[in-house]
Design a protein that fits this description.
Layout lengths: L4 E3 L3 H6 L2 E5 L10 H16 L4 E6 L4 H13 L2 E7 L11 H8 L2 E6 L1 H4 L5 H10 L3 E3 L7 H7 L12 E6 L3 H8 L6 E6 L6 H6 L7 E3 L13 H14 L8 H13 L8 E5 L6 H11 L8
Parallel strand pairs: 2-10, 3-4, 3-6, 4-5, 7-8, 7-10, 8-9
Antiparallel strand pairs: 1-2
Helix pairs in contact: 2-3, 2-7, 3-4, 7-8
């Protein structure tokens, strides 16, 4: 499947003699875009081979993974179940664009408290879910497992060997692990975590075979789903200048980080960078509703 590498033309890049391209994985599919398409590919095949009655997975109120899994299930004729973080959403999911989309595409919800949600990897909790939802194929939060990593290993192609640096936003670590595995020894992979915490390195090491990577932890803007006016203004500026939309949870933070590093001469002149656009644009509508309540600028759609 051919994905466009779109060159970014900005004055700072010309000034510093840096080439920056965006791999437009967001254009893979209208509803299962970016890394979600890659992560679900082999998991769906496995669920079908096992004759699973449903796919059960986990996510929060604005989860790209929840939305993509719901649509993929509908498209492939398999029931989906979402274990959703936050009991308070049970009575107001209709007000949430992501959950409304998932429900429209046939997903059944199980709302749990934040305390219970933290047990999502606990074997006893998973056994309980298997008992409640018999013959379910269980996908971890964000879809991060070995089959997801296998799918993400297909993001880079032979022609991407021309790049010195490969950049990716980091959520659960599955996507960047796949990217790391498919790079060559002369390339470096830079990960931009969207959340705070030192656990990500350990999670990535479970799947990544190479050591040519590092995490740059200064661009999370306070943590997962946290944003600031500076980030929103950057996303709107980038859209105006390049016609490339960015989401505020992952790709917006990554591109902000890359261009900040360019400003700071982090990259040697002549460096060629490719940044992976992992999709996630469905979350903009929900984020704008939150920004409106906080009387902050909105993301241009």
């Amino acid at each position: 499947m051919k994905v466009l590498n779109q060159q970014v033309q900005l004055p700072i890049l010309t000034e510093k003699n840096i080439s920056l391209y965006i791999k437009r994985e967001d254009m893979l599919h209208p509803f299962i875009s970016g890394n979600k398409f890659r992560k679900l590919k082999y998991n769906l095949l496995q669920a079908q081979q096992l004759n699973a009655k449903s796919i059960l997975t986990f996510g929060g109120a604005f989860s790209n993974h929840i939305a993509a899994t719901a649509y993929a299930g509908k498209e492939n004729g398999i029931k989906t179940i979402g274990v959703i973080r936050g009991e308070e959403l049970a009575g107001k999911w209709q007000q949430n664009p992501t959950l409304s989309f998932a429900k429209e595409n046939g997903m059944e919800f199980k709302f749990v408290s934040r305390e219970t949600y933290r047990e999502k990897n606990n074997p006893d909790f998973l056994t309980e879910l298997r008992h409640q939802y018999k013959d379910s194929f269980i996908l971890p939060e964000g879809g991060a497992n070995d089959l997801a990593v296998k799918g993400c290993e297909e993001i880079l192609t032979a022609e991407d060997s021309m790049f010195n640096i490969v950049c990716s936003a980091v959520g659960t670590g599955g996507t960047i692990a796949g990217i790391i595995n498919s790079t060559n020894k002369n390339q470096r992979v830079l990960g931009f975590p969207a959340l705070k915490g030192n656990f990500l390195k350990e999670d990535i090491c479970k799947f990544a075979h190479n050591t040519n990577w590092e995490l740059l932890k200064d661009y999370h803007f306070g943590g997962y789903a946290k944003v600031a006016q500076e980030l929103i203004e950057f996303i709107n500026y980038f859209r105006t200048e390049t016609d490339i939309p960015l989401d505020p949870i992952y790709t917006g933070k990554m591109l902000f980080g890359i261009l900040d590093l360019v400003h700071k001469d982090y990259f040697a002149p002549g460096t060629k960078i490719v940044a992976i656009h992992t999709g996630g644009l469905q979350g903009i509508e929900g984020m704008n509703s939150l920004l409106k309540k906080k009387k902050l600028p909105l993301i241009n759609e």
